[in-house]
Please model this.
Amino acid sequence: MRTECDTTTTNQPDRDRLRGEWQRVTLRAGWPVRVAWHSDAVEQCVDALVRDGQVLSACLALAKDRAAAEIPLDVALAELDALFLCGPAHSAPGPLVQAYLGTRARANPPGTLPLGTDPITELPSAAILQQRLVQRTGNGEHVRIVVVRLEVPESLLWGHLRHLLLTARHMERALGDLAYAVPPGRLPALLDGDDPELPDRLDRLCRAPVDPLNGPGGAPGGAPRVPRSSVRLATAPGTAGR
Model:
């Protein structure tokens, strides 16, 4: 039975070309060297695109396979998008991404994720954010909160989960601290309000994240751009703004 997550392909890709391009683009997206890329789940996905276009069950098998191998979620979602960009030449559909993430969350081995991690985004949860905020303000720190929000409708966020994670990693590199998962589509982080490098950190934050599926050597035809984001900086409750 077909579902809205299945894909009909009129120009079916060559099997070896599809597998080769998919592997090349995925490895470029940060695939861990400790794990062999090829698996039975890879062949199921290639079969689904080349033969009949019914990809949902194949992609859910891939989700289980990558969860068992403890592939980081941002890399796993890059692989999923790369499959579609190398085959039917569009990103993975939102409903399929939602099903993939749900399957992965259920398949993650016990203890894989730290306590308090959001099971879908695999980022620290809002509860952890609150705990760290209380701890830091209790120590008398001048804490600022920066919140980044992707400017996409909430109904389309599933199709942009990879972009959300790209933005989270970009935040962590720019700010030197964790990004947290606060649905829908918002990423807060805690900052030292007295940090003399804060203006430079915010300047780096406002630059666009780098997408490994784009640029020279990326996915054929490139990937959709990371959506624009808004950045809001506030003084944390309970701190004295200075």
User: Anything to note?
Assistant: DSSP finds eight helices and three strands in the chain. Helices lie at 15-28, 40-52, 56-68, 73-86, 94-107, 126-138, 161-175, 198-205. The mean pLDDT is 90. The first strand starts at residue 143 and ends at 150.
